[in-house]
Amino acid sequence: xRLLSFVVAxxxxxxxxxxxxxxxxxxxxxxxxxxxxxxIVVPKGVVLTVQPGTKVRFSQAESTKTDPEYIxxxxxxxxxxxxxxxxxxxxxxxxxxxNGTAGSWGGVLIDGGSASMNHCTVRHAENAVQLFAGTVVLxxxxxxxxxxxxxxxxxxxxVRMDGTVIRENDYxxxxxxxxxxxxxxxxxxxxAKRDRFEWAGGEAASSFDLYxxxxxxxxxxxxxxxxxxxxxxxxxxxxxxxxxxVPEASRLVIMPGTIVEFHRRDTNGDGIGENGLLIQxxxxxxxxxxxxxxxxxxxxxxxxxxxxSINLMxxxxxxxxxxxxxxxxxxxxxxxxxxxxxxxxxxxxxxxxGIQFQESQVEILNxxxxxxxxxxxxxxxxxxxxxxxxxxxxxxVNIFRAAVTVSGNRFSGNAIDGLRIRDSGVxxxxxxxxxxxxxxxxxxxxxxxYTSNLVSDNAELGxxxxxxDNLEISNNYFSGxxxxxxxxQEVRALIRDNSFTDNRERGIGIISFDGVxxxxxxxxxxxxxxxxxxxxxxxxxxxxxxxxxxxKVVFDGADIAxxxxxxxxxxxxxxxxIVWPIADIPVDVVWRGAISTGSVTVPSGVTLDxxxxxxxxxxxxxxxxxxxxxxxxxxxGRRISFTSAEPVRPGFWGEILLExxxxxxxxxCDFRGASWALHSxxxxxxxADSRFETNNGGIRFRSGPLTITRSQFKGNEIGIRSYRGVAxxxxxEITGNEIGIFxxxxxxxxxxxxxxxxxxxxxxxxxxxFNDEDVKAANNWxxxxxxxxxxxxxxxxxxxxxxxxxxxxxxxxxxxxxx
Length: 819
Description:
By secondary structure, this protein is an all-beta fold. It has one helix and 88 strands. The strands form eight sheets. The protein has a 26-stranded parallel β-sheet that branches. The termini are far apart.
């Protein structure tokens, strides 16, 4: 690890001191004038004290550093131990950037440590004080002229402010994900964009499966500092207390079920373990799902950074393989340069960084990154990153100066950013960004395509794009983000066929933009569909503005002098069909406008809300499988429709299948062209004021309970089919079908009443050959003739149940759906 270029002597007083990139290894005192040129980390167990009157000047540096113990790309002071700032009213402490502009240094970042900041001023930072976990006390402290004053994230973050002032920042106080902030006699005011921002956040991915090792394995090999020549095969349990090297032309093969454990050795006291593997030949670590391979700490109480890394250097011939492995407790789990590496179906957890690489050929496929300070950092490489889950890390994936394809991943619940791209050519397709502070941050790129992504419930921004040229953003769904769906600064792009709905502030926030915004849907964003801050005009023709006049939802030069105009000519009068981008809906989301979709799944624990007035177009044989919850609640005059993507014909699309989808609701909805419009298993479902027309079948269900009221079933082969069902079917119009209601088995749980059951082709109610129970169907309208003519039951076939239809209504009920 790096050593101090200049160590401030304990209790020493100097006119000018300097501190360069370092992890402090002992208690340290700063006083006088301190120049910080690089990052400082105060690790667990170490105290940094800043004495009264000290002035700490931070140099500006947006570096490309790769050391995973640092959090921000800017110059930062990271606290994992203890920070004590001991300013007084007469001799306050100052922390500030050398060039005097907001965002020129990272700030005080508290990552599991504690800080007490007394009579202190913090200026010019990106985040003056930011907590990811830990505690901070701000006493008579001023946070001003920063991008963000105070940012507290997560339930493990606690802040107390006494007599503190947060003002003249872009954003004042930000609380994300349940952080606790207690303020006494403090002021948060006069911040440029917002004084306070609180975001409970969407519920990010909540489950994360870890592999389980074999129990009771005895130690088969013990290594210290050693070189493995030729071919070496590891089995069982391998213990390492040194650096093991595999030289060129040699190969290490690790068999399924092997456990490789590293003892902690920290000779320089920086808190980072030094034992590990160095592969200059070839590594084949190929576990199986039943017998994964483990790389982990050998300590009784494992901690992050207990060992160094699996290092691969100049191994660019035969592809190195890491498959079905679990790598944990490391500094960098896998670290490689000038190598050809495939990492698949593996778990990376509790490390400073999961994977780090440069100048390599890289495939990272179907892995899980969980609970690391940083999941992945790569640069100057050709990268395929696909099918991975990047969940609840401090930072997600950071790619610099690379050619990269990012597809089919989920970036969920990462404390800072899900994906960060810089100076790279990128294809980003079919990913989910949810529950991060920022979903995607991209800058300084010359081309790229961001298509078919779901960007939802990120605390501040969905996509933050800066200094990008020749970019296409298409077929994405931006919904429910805390600030903007997209923020644009110095971007030239085509933005088309996207949906921007339910974002807390803006669909698109523009600082500076050159390009075209067209054929998008904007609806129900909190402040504006588009907010233009620059003086240049923006071209945005042919969009749908959620049923509003464009000038009502666009903020530009028509609202404030000095800004450009957004050209909204040719607005669409109706929602434009937006293609739903992914096969699963892994996060609570609202569908609005017009959604065109193939088959999709709503998993357990997730709710799909469909807003009033929405049109859902389903492709050939497409179905929606709901294992979570469906809430399709239209309104009179703003009905929801589920229909064919082509001219309506029965059986064009499949069904909406609800499997144990508790508390689902369908109201004021229309279904046309399905095989079975609604197919419900073991679901308590309410259907009201809805229409089922021109389907093979309207509603098919097993168990229940269902309540079906005030709805129309017309022109279907079967209106309603019950199998061992429990349901109230009341006040409906079930006419013009071949069979109105078909009771396959166990019909005693049905209560059919006050319906219009007239004019069905074969039968109003048909009892199935295996139904041996009677069906309650009193007080219905059957038409003018004898109801028995419209019923198939035990009167026609012995051994099946009767339909108990008496008394019958003598007049036709009022039509079920009035419009």
